[in-house]
Structures are given as structure tokens and as C-alpha cells.
Amino acid sequence: MKILESGKLESEQGKERRKLSWKDFPGPLQGDGQDVVSILQLVQNLMHGDDDQQGHRRMQYVGEQGHMALLGHSLAAYISVLERERLRKLTTRILSDTTLWLCRLFRYENGSAYYHEDDREGLVKMCRLAINTHYEDYATEGFTLLSSKHPVIYQSAACRPGLGQHLCSQLGLPLSSLCIVPCNTMFGSLHQMDVALLDKLIRDDRESGKLPLLLIANAGTPGAGHTDKLSRLKELCVQYNMWLHVEGVNLATLVLGQVSSTVTAATKCDSITLTPGPWLGLPAVPAVTLYRHEDPALSLAAGLTSSQPVEKLRALPLWLSLQYLGHDGILQRIKHASQLSQQLLEHLKTLASIKTSVEDELNSPVVVFRFSQDNSVRKFPSLGCMCVYLGEQLAQQVPLSGVDVVELEDEGTCVRFSPLMTAAALGTQENDVAALVEKLGEMIPVLSCTLRFRQDFKDEVLQQASLSYIEDQSWPGLGGARTTDLDEDKRQYRVERINSDLLKKLMELDTDLYFSDGPEFCEEKNCIFIGMATEDLDVAELVETIVSIGRDIEESGKLFENMTEVVRRGIQEAEQQLQKANEEKLMEEGVLRQIPLVGSVLNWFSPVQASVKGRTFNLAEGCLDSTEPVYSVKAQMIKEASLDSPKSVTKRFPGQKLFRRHGAGSDSVSDTSSVSQLEESFRETAHVQEHHVHIVAEMALSDQRVPEGQETESVDTLR
Predict the structure, then answer these.
(1) Helix/strand/coil for 213
(2) 509-535 burial by CB neighbour count: b if 16+ within 10 A, else e?
(3) Phi and psi for 625 in degrees, rounded to 5?
(4) Which of 4, 246, 531, 605 has the largest CB neighbor count within 10 A?
(5) Given pLDDT bands bounded at 50, 70 and 90, which one contains residue 680?
(6) According to its UniProt record, which protein family does this protein belong to (predicted)?
(7) pLDDT tens-digit map of 64-73
(8) Least confident of 275-289, 547-561, 600-614
């Protein structure tokens, strides 16, 4: 395992050979087989083959406790070859020890354990056990018994998505057997199941001839980490003879000395599902469902126990890891994660514009917070994009914190910090939480300024006739704008070209603002979106600069369009004049000179000077002239043309930033100076380009001398 993690098995020569080989592609099985070193080499190549190109390792560091868990899978395969009686004794000992340790750790007395790879599989088995308990002849009659009395499974609306559908699919039940219980709307947490409404739903189902079968409750909802009122729910299940199953991240806190009473109530429920892998940083260990039931035959019928010793070896990785960590090590990891949550929560209380959604502030392992506008900020219809931006930036800047973005039904988009699920694997420490708070403190003023200037930007854009405001709630910055064109025939082409050139020019400016073409799935096209703003932003100057640059780009485009039309008319006129000159030459020289053999003899005895002259087109005057005045100085014009290359000089002081108000900083500039510099720069560029095209056009037309005997090709040559 150390060799595979370090990537030191392969030599430098081997790396070069691998780059030129086909071993990374599927191929036929070799007939003579391979040795162990070659097979491990192949595994290593598949694990770390492209690390050099990506610049980072794709595996996280696995500690010694992780090595013990991985070793358990190898030992399970090795132990399975023992003789049957010895294997039975060993697997029974492993299963008994692990079940006893887990029941004592999590305060679940007289419980049995079911180990499973999919963390939903334990709940499926509990449903099968409940069905076998309520329908006595289910083992022989099957689903025909369910038609007379339909079973109903109840789950909270705050449960993880797709859980109920998965149960119905695995059990072969229709979706009508699933009942979603809403959360509280008047009293209590907005993420807790409404107990009164649940009572009413159960009574209605019983009156309609249905059988309330099982209730799924949460000890730590997937989104916000809130716990249902388990004591009240347990009383309700006893009243209606229902099975109560609990799952959630807050169950990990049962190992602590001080536990919330709402979470402690889970130890009295019929079954709970634990996920010690992420809680303790153990890779590839199974989830565990602890349950209580008196009839072993029904447990066997539900698939909770097996007579196959190999099935009991699923607990071996967990058996090894728990012994390696010990009681104190397990307690220390859970306690450390809870302390990280408390540390972050204490700092969040001191930050303005941050709202938290925490059920139990004294002992909550999950912290959910969001950015919220204060009274000084104008009302903004949606803060979701700001929270998404905040969560993404925090996850990128402080990756060891393990924060992510969640969507809650009532609060909307929030940032979640759940160290019980991430800290053990990432190695999150107190300094990572401090870095998270520091980064959060830096971003809050930026978000507040952006919200404050967002309406100002919209008002400034709406005042400009050449701009249209783009409303996109998924963009976290100032907003978007787009240049408009009144010519409907060429509107699409012009808008696309102008906005594309405008975005390039804005991105070249010396400013801290971020310019983009918008979100990935933005419905509006050919737009310019501006990112986050700071306190010293001058919105009026920003919009004025966008209008000025867009106007220059549009005028430059119209200049070239007009120039194209003038050149086209000039070429047509030149064709007509050259055709007329050819006809006059034919009349002067006579028909005999046009005959190949006779013409050569006549030209030898009596040479005739060609009278057809070239034409040059003057772009400034828009007229055709003879090439004789310019042909003699052709070399000098070429030299001048090579020296007159387009230049664009922008006058700007070192360190100067655009769009800064007076007094905001040492690098602030005036509103008029930056705009005038941009206008002067674009006008100089347009003037130089016009002069350059004028010279090139004169050169192209001046070269069209008509050699003798090739008069008919003059028009095609000119084109």
C-alpha cells in the first residue's frame, strides 16, 4: 500500500517507456501470465498515470488507521480459505466483538448489527423485517397479502432525496406506499417533521384500510443537520405499532460524554444506521445498522443474518480499525469534529451579514450559514447566487475546511460546514477554521458593495440608449449589459461582433474588475457581465467607458463598411475605363496587329508604344487617377508604407487603475481622463488603419500595367 501511494515503484526509464506504450488501453489477456511486480506496476500506472500532467495527486493521504481498514479486505479473502469449523469460530468472534463495541460506543443496549456496503441497504432490510412481522404468512403468500392491506412508509420531507423511491424499488412496492410528511411551518424547527400532521396522516391511513408500517426519522438532516423530535415520534410509533428507524450525522455524538437529549432518544428507537467510515476517516469500511428484534427466524427471513461465514467477514475491516483506534481514539475524533463546529459558530456570530441555521448551538456538529443583506443595503430579489459564489470561493481558497453549498427549502442556498463527514479524511484543524473565518471576513465587504452597486449599475445602463440591461439572477457580480443596434437587417451580426470586440477591449484595461461573457448556461447571448465590486468603484465611469469603447468599435466597423463600398465602386469604374482604353488601342493599332504572326512582323518594322495606362484609386477623394504620376515613385511609397505601421498608444501612469473614485486611493484617476484616453487611443488606431488601407489600395491598383497582347486579362488581374 505504501508503494502504491508513493508511486516510487517505477523508474524514470519505465515512465518514458510507458508514455510510448499501449498498456493503458484495454487489450487481450496474455497467455503466459504476468508476475506480481508487473501487475502492481499496472495498478500504479492506472492510479497515478497522469499526475504529472494534472499537477496534483488524486488520492488523499491514508493514515495508519486507514491501512488497517484496507488490510481487513485482504485478510477477509485470506481467512475465507480456512477449514469450515475454524472459519465459523473466527467469523463469529469478529462479528460478536464488533457488534458489542458499537452497541456500547453508541449507547444502543441489547442490539444486533447488520453490516452493508450501501448505507441505504440497512433501511431496506428493516422494511423487510417490519413486513415479515406484520404479515405472518408473507414468507409463503408473498405480495398477495399486501393487496388487502397496503403498507405505508412515512418519511420526513427533509430526508435525503431519492431515499423513499429507492425503498419502493427494492421492496417492489408502488410509490403510493410512500408518504412524505411535511416539516413544521408554525412551531419548532423548519427542518423537523410535523408530529401533529403525522398523527393525522396515520389516522387517515388506518381509517382507509391501510397499514402504517415504518417511519424514517432524522438525527441530523442531510441539509441542515437538524434532529426530529424522536421522543414524541417514538411514542407515536408505539401507539400505532409502527417501526421507527433513525439515521443522520448527529448519531456520531452519542459517543460523547455530553449529548443532546433529542439525540439520546435515538437509542430507544427500533433501528439506527451508522456510517463510521467518514466519521473516523476509515476508507472502505461498511455502514452498520443496529436494531432490536426478538425473533431470529424473522431476522433470517429479512436477510439480516446469514449462515454463510464469509458474509460475516464484512465486519473484519471495522473490527481491525476499531481496535487500532481504541475507545479514546474514537472519542477524540468525534470530539475534535464537534469542537471545530463550535469554533466556527462562535466566529460567525461576530460577523455582520451572516445568518446561521443551527438547531442546537451547544452541541451541533453541522453549521449552516448564508450571506444576508443588512438594513443599509437595498432589497435584492435573490441572494442565492451570492451564497453560491461565497461557498465556491471558500472551498477553493480553504480546501481543507471541506465546506460545500447546499440548497435548503426555506433558507435557500447556504454554505455547510460538516466536519464529522469531512474532517477525518481531510485532516481539518483549528487553523483551517481560522483561515476560513479570515477569508469570510474579506469577502463580506465585497459582497455587500456588489449588492449596493448592483442597482446603481442597472440605473446607469438604462440611461444609455446604446446599452440594454441584462437581468440574470445566477450572476453574482454587478450585472450584465449589451450594446444595441437599430438596424434590424444587420442587427444580429453587428451586435455579436461589437460585443465580442468590446469584451476583449475591456479585459485589456488596467482595472481590478472582472469581465466575462456570462454564466455557462445563460440564456442571453452576446452579453458582457461585470464581476464583484469594491467600495471605491465609480459605476458612472464604468458605464461611460463601456459606451465609449462600444461607440468607437461601432464607428470603426462602419468606416470599413463604407470603405468597402467605395472601393467596390472604384473597381467597377476602373474596369469600365480599362475596357474603353483597350477599345481605343484597337482602333489606333488596327486589326492586322492583333493577328499573331502578322502583328509580330508589323511591330518589328514599325514599333508602336502602348497607350493603355494603369489606374490608381484615391480613398480620400474617392476618384480614379492615372498611375503615371505615382509609378515613378513606387519604391519610395513602399518604403513609407512599411514605416507607417498601426500603433495604439495608451497614456497611463504606472499603477493607475480605472473606475476608481476621487479620494478612494493613490491610484485613482479622474472620470474624464480615463475615458478621453480610451477615445484618443481608439481614434488614433482607426486613423492609422485608414491611412494604411489607402496606401495599400493605391499600390494594388498602380501595379495593374497592361502588357502588350494581354489586354483581355486586365479586368481579371485588377480583381
Answers:
(1) strand
(2) bebebebbbbbeebeeebbbbbbbbbe
(3) -130, 165
(4) 246
(5) very low
(6) Belongs to the group II decarboxylase family.
(7) 777 888 888 8
(8) 600-614
Yes or no: say if 632 and 518 are a contact pair by the CB < 8 Å rule. Answer: no
> Contact 516/506 with Cβ under 8 angstroms?
no
What CA–CA distances, in Å, run from 505 to 43, 84, 510, 601?
Answer: 49, 78, 11, 66
- CA 244 vs CA 122, 154, 420: distances in Å: 13, 10, 24
SS3 for 130? helix
- What average pLDDT is seen over the chain? 78
Percent of the chain with pLDDT over 90: 37
Instruction: Give alpha helix (H) positions in 349-429.
Output: 384-397, 419-426
Number of separate helices (H) and strands (E) present in the chain: 27, 17
Amino acid type, 710: Q
Compute the C-alpha angle 306/281/227, nearest 5°: 80
Give the position of cell 485482504: 74
The contacts of residue 251 (CB under 8 Å, 6+ apart) are: 106, 219, 220, 263, 266, 272, 273, 274
Q: Which residues contact 613 (CB under 8 A, 6 or more apart)?
A: 581, 626, 627, 628
Query: How far is it, in rounded angstroms, from Cα 94 to Cα 212?
Result: 37
CA 484 to chain centre: 31
Chain centre distance of CA 654: 36
Among residues 99, 92, 159, the alpha carbon closest in space to that of 123 is found at 159
CB 282 within 8 A of CB 66: yes
Which whole number is the average pLDDT over 33-58?
69
User: Alpha-carbon distance 473 to 457, whole Å?
Assistant: 15
> Please, are residues 477 and 530 in contact by the beta-carbon 8 Å criterion?
yes
Pairwise pLDDT comparison (39 vs 561), residue with the higher score: 39
Residue showing cell 460577523: 351
Q: Nine-digit cell at 201?
A: 396522516
What is the spatial distance between Cα 636 and Cα 633, in angstroms, rounded to a whole number? 5
Residue that the C-alpha cell 448519531 belongs to: 251
Separation between Cα atoms, residue 404 and residue 633, nearest integer Å: 72
Do the beta carbons of residue 202 and residue 164 sit within 8 Å? no
Query: Cell triple for residue 81?
Result: 480459505
Which of 374, 371, 338 minimizes the C-alpha distance to 356? 371
pLDDT at 658: 67
Full 3-state SS string of 272-287? EEECHHHHHCCCCCCE
Contact residues for 407 (Cβ-Cβ < 8 A; gap 6+)? 223, 413, 414
Strand ranges, E, within 377-488: 404-408, 412-417, 467-470, 479-483
pLDDT at 610: 56
Q: CA Rg, the chain, in Å?
A: 40
Report phi then psi at 246, rounded to 5: -125, 140
Chain centroid to Cα 597, Å, comes to: 80
Q: What is the DSSP letter of 211?
A: E
Can you name the residues that pair with 114 across neighbouring β-strands?
Answer: 289
pTM: 0.73
pLDDT in tens, 294-323: 898 999 999 998 878 778 899 999 999 999
* Predicted confidence (pLDDT) per residue in 222-265, tens digit: 888 889 999 999 999 999 999 999 999 999 999 998 888 889 99
